[in-house]
Design goal:
Layout (H helix, E strand, L loop, with lengths): L2 H4 L3 E3 L2 E3 L4 E2 L12 H14 L4 E8 L11 E2 L4 H15 L4 E6 L7 H4 L4 E2 L13 E2 L2 H20 L4 E6 L4 H6 L14 H4 L1 H14 L5 E8 L8 H13 L4 E6 L19 H10 L6 E3 L4 E2 L6
Parallel strand pairs: 3-4, 4-5, 4-6, 6-9, 7-8, 9-10, 10-11, 11-12
Antiparallel strand pairs: 1-2, 12-13
Helix pairs in contact: 2-3, 5-8
The structure holds flavin mononucleotide.
Length: about 300
């Protein structure tokens, strides 16, 4: 892609972005500080003023047990709608666009920080967490899907221009998709069709709340970097099914937090994992959805 094209507008569903530069989700921890919201507003508006087409916030927990830690962003209370309005207003005032990331940590949550039981598809402990998770009951699975949907509705009411569903990096949704963390024997586990039911039902429930015109981004794992985890063929099937389920944009994440392979920038060569996003994009030439890679936004919309 030429650098000029990077700064051309692009349409995602009904939303026009001023450029194709997307600031990926990063939990910066400012909200836990004194005057945290004001600091977060200053941080994001600075990026919006400087030609970032879309900012994706750090993860916002869709329910208390899904939180990533102390002072973590949340979107599970009705009060959260009013709380986030000054942020979306400020970004819009400088011409920017901002999406909220809908987040559930699953077995990566710490009981000492959330005050809740740690939950996951199955009671399989993560090597990077001292807490053993409880397997979600079938009823709790439905409640969690509903929590994502209510969170999306609140995000839209708070003025966010889009939502990003966090389905990568080994968090709850990823834990359902992978056979390493999902040993359920009900309709949510076993075959790949069953393991991808959770993300697909979340997308459908979110779409039901936000309407057909609102942009939904799904952050999916392009590569888990975990032994015996999701295969390449399964990853490609998931991408296809997510598109059918009405996702507008795929953001390709790399690696789980417990992976032994470094994935965060400064520890890996620049653009090292872009080919993973490119291969998902190239396998799906017939699709109209867009694909994001870290560093570069890869366009797949034939009209662009
Ligand atoms: C401090 C920090 C916080 C992050 N928080 C999130 C997050 O809340 N949600 C998310 O999807 N990714 C999060 N990430 C991952 C980044 O979005 C990105 O995938 C990662 O940094 C690799 O991309 P890069 O090479 O551009 O840094 C975080 C990364 C860092 C360094």
């Amino acid at each position: 892609m030429s650098s000029q094209l990077l700064f051309n507008p692009i349409k995602i569903n009904s939303l026009t972005l001023p450029s194709r530069v997307i600031m990926g989700s990063m939990h910066v921890g400012l909200e836990g500080e004194e005057n945290g919201l004001e600091k977060l507003i200053a941080f994001y508006t600075e990026r919006a003023k400087n030609k970032v087409g879309l900012i994706v916030t750090g993860g916002a927990a869709v329910c208390p047990e899904g939180s990533g830690g102390l002072h973590f962003m949340s979107i599970y209370n009705d009060e959260d709608v009013e709380y986030w309005k000054p942020l979306t207003k400020a970004v819009h005032e400088v011409g920017g666009k901002i999406a909220l990331q809908l987040f559930h940590a699953g077995r990566y949550a710490y009981q000492a920080l959330t005050g809740c039981n740690v939950v996951a598809p199955s009671a399989i402990q993560s090597p990077i967490n001292p807490d053993k998770p409880h397997a979600l009951t079938a009823e709790q699975v439905q409640e969690t899907i509903a929590a994502f949907a209510s969170a999306a509705k609140r995000a839209k009411e708070a003025g966010f221009d889009a939502v990003e569903i966090m389905g990568s990096e080994g968090y709850l949704i990823n834990q359902f998709i992978s056979p390493v963390t999902n040993e359920r024997e009900d309709e949510w586990g076993g075959s790949f069709e069953n393991r991808m039911r959770f993300p697909l039902e979340i997308v459908k429930a979110v779409r039901g709340e936000v309407g057909s015109a609102y942009p939904i981004i799904f952050r999916m794992s392009g590569l888990d970097l975990i032994e015996n985890s999701t295969t390449e063929a399964e990853t490609l099937t998931l991408a296809k099914e997510l598109e059918k389920a009405s996702v507008d944009l795929l953001n390709i994440g790399i690696g789980w937090h417990e992976s032994k392979v470094p994935t965060i920038s400064m520890k890996v060569p620049r653009n090292r994992f872009v080919p993973v996003a490119a291969s998902i994009k190239n396998r799906f030439q017939f699709l109209s959805l867009l694909v994001i890679a870290s560093i570069i936004l890869l366009m797949q919309n034939k009209s662009s």
